[in-house]
Amino acid sequence: MSMQRILSLCLIALAVISASGYSVISARGSSSLASCTPDFTLSVSRMSGTVERGSSTGFGISIASVCKLVDSIGWGVAITSPVPKVTCDSKNVCTSNGPSIHQSTYTVVLTSTHTSGSGTFTVSASSDTLLTTYTLTVSARDVTHCCLSHSLNITVTVDDFTVTANPTKVTVSAGQNANSAITVTGLNGFTGTIYYSDNMPSPGVPPLGCSLQPSQPTLTSTTTSVTSILSCGGAKGTYTVTVSGSPYSGLPVRTATITITVT
């Protein structure tokens, strides 16, 4: 058999092997076959997020079969850095200065017909949650067999804002306007528009009329504090005006209270 004929047969054999789904790895004239290994992938809807004290933010996870893996995959979320500090009182009631995590499910079942699954979890911050950026580790492991596991890290920043009034008590004569500066200040990098609401009557409506400008201040990475002017006037009497501010989501809500006396 001629050398050319031998080379032709070798090329045909390589083509058949490649078409069958195997890969050919050449190493100094030799070849080896690499088959598909059953596994799974883990992904998260986003790798970072922010949450204000008194509110929550949500994430989604997805688990998908690789090479026809059939298994039950358990998954979970844990705070890995910084580690929250837990304190307990005399009645053994314990609190943490870290965010809390709630999962909608804990297992994704992969079958021959159901090759992927998903779940969600929420991260919530209380008024006592430390203002910092947390690293959360999302982990997944096969439950039925051993020992497939995957994990990835995401970050969640806990921020906040304050709403204050200065002065908080104003006294004016009838016919004059009582003014107070309403200031919103971002904490730990808070950004976004604050929407004010209040218990104030419309301007010109007795017994007290008020206006607040600007009514929708926006905080950015460079503008961390914005002052609006509350101006009220009306008939004689003492009034309590409460200004509430919240982001677009509606939570959290921060308030400032001003007492106005018209003599």
Describe this structure as you would to a colleague.
The protein is mainly beta and 263 residues long. It folds into three domains: 3-34, no CATH class; 39-160, Immunoglobulin-like, CATH 2.60.40; 167-262, Immunoglobulin-like (Sandwich), CATH 2.60.40. Helices cover 6% and strands 58% of the residues. It contains one helix and 22 strands. The protein has one helix spanning 3-19; strands at 23-27, 30-34, 39-44, 48-52, 55-66, 71-81, 86-88, 94-96, 100-103, 107-110, 116-125, 133-142, 149-166, 169-172, 178-187, 192-193, 195-198, 208-213, 218-219, 225-234, 237-246, 254-262. The strands form six sheets. Strands 4, 6, 10, 12, 13, 15, 18 and 20 form an eight-stranded mixed β-sheet that branches. Strand 7 and strand 8 (94-96) form a beta hairpin. Mean pLDDT is 87; it is low at 9-33.
Q: Report the β-strand fraction as a percent range.
A: over 45%
> Superfamily at the CATH H level of the largest domain?
Immunoglobulins
Number of domains: 3
Question: What is the H/E order?
Answer: HEEEEEEEEEEEEEEEEEEEEEE
Instruction: Determine the number of helices (DSSP H or I, runs of at least 4 residues).
Output: 1
Chain-wise SSE layout:
Blueprint: H1 3-19, E1 23-27, E2 30-34, E3 39-44, E4 48-52, E5 55-66, E6 71-81, E7 86-88, E8 94-96, E9 100-103, E10 107-110, E11 116-125, E12 133-142, E13 149-166, E14 169-172, E15 178-187, E16 192-193, E17 195-198, E18 208-213, E19 218-219, E20 225-234, E21 237-246, E22 254-262
Parallel strand pairs: 4-13, 14-22
Antiparallel strand pairs: 1-2, 3-5, 5-11, 6-10, 6-12, 7-8, 9-11, 12-13, 13-15, 15-20, 16-19, 17-21, 18-20, 21-22
